[in-house]
Design goal:
The radius of gyration is 18 Å and the shape is globular. The protein has helices spanning about 25-30, 65-75, 125-135, 155-160, 170-180, 215-225, 225-255, and strands at about 15-20, 35-40, 40-50, 50-60, 80-90, 100, 105-110, 115, 140, 145, 165-170, 185-195, 210, 210-215. Helix 2 runs parallel beside helix 5. Strand 3 (about 40-50) and strand 4 (about 50-60) form a beta hairpin. By secondary structure, the protein is an alpha/beta fold.
């Protein structure tokens, strides 16, 4: 599906999807958005990005919740194009914190079916202009984004034997399944929030960590450990940097008329 398939229908929305609201924070800070509850407890934000009717929403974390939310939204609203955004954990040693990745395919840890990205939708000229005019951080086109079922630490990342995997996330495969089924053109853009050999700090209070339950004493130890506070501060900073970077890229693309002109 190329650009000509997207142009010419002004009644449909550009949609921007992430797992968490905070992954869209730069857009909330820049644009005036109207909050709309489309179903009990579920919200979208509507606005105009450079004259383009736009919907933003967070799907929730994980494939199951993300799949349900995205399906509900695409059933309710007519969509012209989808940006699928968020942070991701670096797997390739070359993927540094803050790098922006646009994978060439999406895979799942639990499926043999891979979803290739439509390369005709890649705005290569605009990407080069962005790096020349706006920012110098790396934008990596290619490689595989692997959707997994939990937050991966260094050991889990090193257990991935596919050399093409650039990063891991927890939602993209489910999102792509749905938008492909509805013939909605899309672009997956992720920002690297943690390096291949760094661990994401656990939340202060949690019931589960990976596939095991967490005791109350473990939560207390986590709360009292100064190193856990430092790790949490560092991760929040790195995550914020990744979010700022991919949002700058998407903002530049939309302002430049992509993908509708």
């Amino acid at each position: 599906m190329g650009k000509m398939d997207i142009v010419g229908n002004d009644k449909k929305y550009l949609v921007i999807i992430s797992a968490l609201v905070q992954e869209l924070l730069p857009f909330f800070q820049k644009f005036q958005l109207e909050r709309t509850e489309f179903e009990k407890g579920r919200t979208v934000w509507k606005g105009s990005f450079y004259g383009v009717p736009t919907i933003l929403f967070s799907s929730g974390v994980g494939e199951k919740l993300g799949s349900y939310t995205v399906q509900t939204v695409v059933d309710k609203y007519p969509i012209r194009f989808a940006f699928l955004l968020g942070v991701a954990g670096g797997v390739a040693p070359s993927a540094a914190v803050g790098d922006v990745i646009i994978p060439q395919e999406i895979k799942s840890l639990h499926s043999d079916v891979a979803f290739p990205l439509d390369r005709s939708l890649l705005p290569m000229d605009l990407m080069r202009q962005f790096q020349n005019e706006v920012e110098k951080f790396p934008i990596r086109n290619g490689g595989t984004l692997l959707t997994v079922d939990r937050v991966f630490g260094p050991k889990e990342k090193q257990s991935i034997h596919d050399p093409g995997v650039m990063a891991v996330d927890m939602e993209s495969y489910a999102w792509v399944q749905i938008v492909r089924k509805r013939a909605i053109p899309f672009l997956v853009i992720r920002g690297i929030s943690d390096h291949w050999n760094s661990a994401v700090p656990p939340p202060l209070f949690s019931r589960n960590r990976g596939h095991r339950s967490v005791t109350g004493w473990e939560n207390v130890q986590n709360l009292l450990n100064p190193l856990s506070w430092f790790a949490r501060f560092r991760f929040r900073k790195d995550m914020g940097y990744a979010i700022q970077n991919y949002c700058k890229v998407v903002d530049y693309l939309i302002e430049s008329g992509y993908p509708f002109h």
